[in-house]
Design goal:
single chain; about 325 residues; alpha/beta; TIM Barrel; eight-stranded parallel barrel; 12 helices; 8 strands; about 45% helix; globular
Length: about 325
């Protein structure tokens, strides 16, 4: 199977499942400390690697049960130079982490991919700064130069595509798309929103997507929403617009709390898996172009199973 056959595309009907809340699962359910919320440290020893393997395989099993494809997003959301420096990783060591993450994902794919369940290995990148607060805003040119380093590593090891998650403002997304286009790597862009359905920057979701497409000649494969509960962005979907045709994925939080509330919470809010699935079913009629469904913070296999059952029936 070629990479082009594996990756999600808006012009195909195949539905892809994504995983849940990797970091929250490891911290609150597996009891594994993740400094700076960095999941790539799980690759450092065999016990944690096995926990990570079990995590991904549990979601692949759900995908196979429902006849869905799967996007295996590498645990590299924090594996960029700024966060790596905070964790004491040199550039060469961090580059090796990114390569190792793709190799780890490739191994899981080799073991579990099936004709009805193709697996796309997606090199995951995150924002340069905090995923909730757009401090230290970059220009699109600065973001291009910054993120090209990690994207080039993913390209060189044959990653199927790059997936950028939890972006808070349009210029960083523009830079990521431009870097990926220059390096000839397919890329998806996922924005997060606050409880009012707007990006942390204050821009509406639709305006941000339209701005990125206008600045990049529509070079991204598709856009997504992640790290927010459906009740936070349902009204934005209801208002709609031409940008809705570019919305290819949703990975919602389990909790209805705001980002600020989640930041201050000492415990995990897992929400209601049954209700989360029902929320996905409510928004489905407005999201005809969505090809990727999954979860984000606080979600686990219970939530993803509920999402699948509600989306498919």
């Amino acid at each position: 199977m070629t990479p082009n056959d594996r990756i999600p595309r808006l012009d195909r009907d195949r539905l892809y499942l994504a995983d849940g809340g990797l970091e929250t699962t490891m911290m609150y359910r597996e009891g594994i400390e993740l400094p700076e919320f960095a999941a790539f440290v799980l690759l450092n020893d065999q016990r944690r690697r096995e926990a990570l393997r079990r995590y991904y395989c549990s979601y692949i099993q759900i995908a196979r049960q429902h006849g869905l494809a799967f996007t295996l997003d590498t645990p590299t959301w924090r594996a960029n130079p700024d966060w790596g420096e905070k964790l004491g990783y040199s550039r060469p060591r961090l580059a090796e982490v990114n390569r190792a993450a793709v190799g780890f994902a490739d191994g899981i794919r080799a073991e579990h991919e099936a004709p009805r369940t193709p697996i796309a290995v997606c090199g995951t990148i995150g924002p340069r700064g905090d995923g909730y607060h757009p401090a230290g805003v970059m220009s699109a040119q600065e973001a291009d130069a910054y993120h090209a380093w990690q994207i080039a590593i993913f390209r060189d090891v044959g990653t199927d595509m790059v997936s950028a998650f939890t972006l808070t403002y349009a210029d960083e997304a523009i830079g990521i798309v431009r870097a990926a286009a220059t390096l000839r790597v397919p890329v998806s862009i996922s924005f997060t929103v606050e409880t009012d359905g707007r990006l942390p920057s204050g821009q509406s979701l639709g305006e941000a997507i339209e701005q990125v497409d206008a600045a990049t000649d529509g070079a991204s494969a598709y856009f997504m929403i992640n790290c927010a509960h459906p009740v936070h962005f349902a009204d934005e979907l209801e208002r709609g617009g031409a940008w809705m045709a570019r919305l290819g994925g949703i990975r919602a939080n389990a909790s209805t709390k705001s980002h600020a509330e989640l930041d201050q919470s000492p415990t995990l809010d897992s929400g209601d898996p049954t209700d989360l699935g029902a929320q996905y079913k409510r928004i489905k009629p407005r999201t005809a172009s969505v090809r990727v469904i999954g979860g984000c913070c606080g979600t686990d296999t219970r939530h993803i199973t509920s999402i699948c059952e509600n989306w498919l029936h």
